[in-house]
Amino acid sequence: MPKRLLLFAETTGYQIRTFAAAARRAGAELVLATNRCRHLDDPWGDHAIAVKFDRIAQSLETLEGVRCDGVAAVGDRPAVLAAHAAEALGLPFHSAQAAQACHDKFRARSILQAAGLPVPRFFEARGVEDAERAPYPCVLKPLGLSASRGVIRANDPAEFRAAYARIRRMGEERVQVEAYIPGREFAVEALMTNGEFRLLAIFDKPDPLEGPFFEETIYTTPSREKESVQRELVSATAAAACALGLHHGPVHAELRHNHEGAWVLEAHARPIGGLCARSLRFDCAGNGPAIPLEELIARQALGEDVRGYVRESQASGVMMIPIPREGLYESVEGVDRAGAVAGMEEVIVTAEPGQRFLTPPEGSSYLGFLFARADSPAVAEAALRRAHGELHFRFATRLETLSPST
């Protein structure tokens, strides 16, 4: 019988199809566990097992008797349930405690601080009166949201009170306050194998992320930073993964670097999100074609030794197409021109006509993704910027009489 990979993902996760193809290439069958409604008969046509990421015990009961040989996850909430399921099934993965810590910004900060890693001053805000004790500049982060959604920089008490009220209007009650860390931002992709850390890639983020909001755009790899900076980024990520208890599977970390060294902003028990993983491909000593990150993860989860795979030598980059304005998406022009830019590999517009988009900090979606490959990361970055300049998005004016749910 073929091996089976159990993948935990949001119902609309971008990486599901890529993981399905990766499992097939690895000679395995993909079994999905998604947060769809259990009362509907396979509404997405993917034969997924219906689970609830916020109901661990109930979901584990649903998974009883499921045959699988490996576990993987896409997204922070799915990773927590995947970790619990792996423990119940006796399969290698990150521990449930570690995955939960990565999903809780306050707990993660506390663990890193206890381990002696550099962390900014932080505390959980109880109200606008905390504006008087916040370190300025500071960053307010809602503990119930992921990525950069709801993250706002405040430079003084007045901005703190405005940011805190804005986050509360988003329905978030728990807000973490951290001293702002100056410096350039990076992402590190890695793989843990039975507690052993192995670097896969370092991404530069060439656009400054200084606030007041922190919408990410371009990632390029390999890093253009000097070797000493790269070593500090890798060392900090490995130390954070060890402190958090990440043991087996992918690790995605966000960091800043300044004259004091590397600071881990977040570490996750899952791979890079969205379609960004398409910017990574891995070779195995020239044996066969390069494989995507999802296949590397799938093969490891199924018990294969993947230590021989290394990132391809060619530079690559991805742009998460930012939201230029709030409104209902209608159409885009210039896709063919963008795709014809030298170095461009793919232009993917994921926005659907009629889909409503919010700008940061309330919004968290992107209009799509641009991918480039070139001889150097600088050339890949330039290709992405030129291609983005060819795209022109059209949004409908939102009528004030419409309710938010319209």
Word description of this protein:
The chain is α+β, with helices and mostly antiparallel strands and 406 residues long. It has four domains: 3-93, Rossmann fold; 121-179, Dna Ligase, domain 1; 184-313, 2-Layer Sandwich (D-amino Acid Aminotransferase, Chain A, domain 1), CATH 3.30.470; 317-396, 2-Layer Sandwich (D-amino Acid Aminotransferase, Chain A, domain 1), CATH 3.30.470.20. Helix content is 27%, strand content 29%. It is built from ten helices and 22 strands. The chain has helices at residues 16-25, 56-63, 76-89, 96-103, 105-114, 157-169, 227-244, 293-301, 335-339, 377-390, and strands at residues 3-9, 28-34, 49-50, 70-73, 122-125, 138-142, 152-154, 175-179, 184-193, 196-204, 218-221, 249-258, 261-268, 281-283, 291-292, 310-311, 315-320, 327-333, 344-349, 356-357, 368-374, 392-396. The strands form six sheets. The protein has a four-stranded parallel beta sheet, sandwiched between helices. Strand 14 (281-283) and strand 15 form a beta hairpin. The radius of gyration is 21 Å and the shape is globular. The N and C termini lie far apart (48 Å). The model is unreliable at 39-45 and 400-406 (pLDDT under 50).
